[in-house]
Amino acid sequence: MSPSAARVAVLTSGGDAQAMNAAVRAVVRTVLHAGGEAFGVHEGYDGLAGPEADLRPLGWDDVSRILDRGGTVLGTARSEAFRQREGRRRAAIRLVQNRIDRLVVIGGDGSLTGALRFHDEWPELVADAVEAGELTASQAQQHARLTVLGVPGSIDNDLPGTDVAIGTDSALRQIVDAIDALEATASSHQRTFVVEVMGRNCGYLAAAGAIAGGADYVLVPEAPPEPQWPEQMCELLAAGRSAGRRNSVVVVAEGARDRQGDPITVAAVRALIEDRLGDETRISVPGHVQRGGTPSAGDRITASLLGHAAGRLAATGRRPADAQLLGIRGTEVTIAPLRDALRAAGRIAELSTTGDSAGVRALRGAAFKDLLATSTAMVRALPPARREVTRRIAVLVEGDLAPGMNAAVRALVRLGLPAGVQLLRADGGLLGLTQGRVEPLEWKSVCGWASQAGSQIIAGDAVAVGGAAVVEALQRQAIDGIVILGGWPAFAQAARLEGLGFPVVVLPATIAADVPGSASSVGADSALNWIVTNADRIRHLGTSQVRCVIAETAGRTCGYLPTLTGIAGGAVRVYAPEEDVTADDIRSDARRLADSVGAGQRLGLVVRGEQALGELTTDELCRAFDEGGEGRFTMHQVVPGQTQFGGGPSPADRLLAAQFARCAVVWLTSPMSTGVVVTAIRGGLVEAVPWDEVRGDADLAAGRRTDTWWADLAVISEALSNRPGTSSRLRDEFARSPGGFARSSLVVPAG
Ligand code: ADP
Asked: Helices in 558-706 by DSSP H: which ranges?
């Protein structure tokens, strides 16, 4: 390393969260690519401020095989020493003595508050140390300021400035797994379960868990219930039972409070239900299980993107002057002053104590408000006492199945009924609709659908049907509009229905996420998790052999699934359909992997999209790698094939399904509902996007979308899995834009 190489320390602090390891790996490897040196601080701030320093250099192999491990290999702690000025002074001295003045902190708001304080006090701390003779003036001059980059790592997802924190998605999975398991036993015994969910003062996990788990009532801190909530809750639970539900699940956030500010405990909720309804009621507290388990694909991606961005900023010559927080907004990595995010967090805490929940909701942002509205709407969605149907809407499925389709239909039916919308299933797609294969869906018809795989509605094969036949079928069956679930086949059908004078909603549901207008679609997250889990299994076969694993993903002409699989799985190479790859490229990729094996690498994951590489089959790709590797590794294939389309939906997919469904119902019941719209997620928000706008992102003839936002991400996957110097593509990339990657809102403030 050159004497001027950037020296960057990274630590994990506070409550642990799944995928903190993935973030550490990303920071360290990015710093190494940028020509810097990385150091790990162990046991949180204690490794700097405690009696013994624990600060060690981290090399490439020190962060191998941790991408899929929960917890944090650096250790984490709540450090009392760092809360004291003397502890922070010691920390500053130790960093300067190690010639380090760049620090990446992965943790929650407490850890980041500590980081900001350290940043602000740094000049004073260093000056004090000079005065006491513990540092020299020249050392102080060389390290006049501390660069601090915060990476939100907290299952609670309570930090303003990011849509998601590292760990939240995995914690949600643990919660929803618990609710699913409880539902099975509760329904056998017709019991009620009251589930306490973590999140401190933030209701994200409770609200999201309630939607995804199909819970029947939810209490969150941001929406203290009306004074008569006990009656209201019991009425809702009783109404659900008499409508045919065999069990009830109530989700209570650990920070839930009533309007007087008094805590609402699971014990109190149980007592209420037992007293008033006489239901056999049990409490379930998943507790620390919520922090456990392997990190989800979504968390690994969030962690890798944020860690990569932090590593790049920390190692670059253009490091920001003020402390910064990295975050995710929609599909973009963002950077903003850490003090602004912490100020907002402080304001939220203040408003929470004064009971100003409207103020808290406003500060939590639009995506959170939408989540709360969806969770409230879902638990209140009971069969109306008097049925007033103002619209009859057919719901149909076209093309391949995707996990989460049933969850979407369930939410459409449940949210539709109170709004006067009667949903009718049309089996066999648009063709089935014209053939009269139509039946009403009642509230009870969709019981248990939230977690079900596949599609209860029989999918159509996107058979072209004339507009006149559809209009006639709608008139004959008194149907006012159509919701189509699916990927490209759904879009192709919708294109045929334009201008026919009735409302059409396309609800993107495809594992390929290849739909125009929306950043993602229902089903993609489940498929991603499934493929990554399969690749992990080979990884877990151990390192006695050096292995090259070729994973083939679905996704047709779209690179979303292979690229994101690459990041979550730690792929050394991603072949996406958008890229032109020659036989020479493949040979050199294989040789590069062989060279890395020489340098100590034990596993190389290669991901190919099914329609990448033209006619080359995955067998042929394996052979090409086998030959190029000259016996240095054994070849394995992961070809999940049809299994990607099956399986139960992940929590994120169930959530998206409910949010799309709510958006569809709101639009269908609005006076403006004519023409075709797509329920889409853009910039982290769900909205109904008019067809004209979506068309700009669609190449209808080629059946592909034109905005390929994920294309720039493949290079991150490769940077995190290929050693520095092994890839000229990566060398060029880092030389071209040392401080950030090509397309993101990552703008480095002047420093
Ligand atoms: P989290 O990061 O999960 O919110 P904590 O609130 O426990 O967790 O904070 C973790 C650690 O961060 C604390 O143990 C302490 O070392 C440090 N810290 C938190 N707040 C401050 C502060 N105001 N000043 C200095 N250090 C702090």
From this structure: 560-569, 583-598, 618-629, 651-668, 691-695
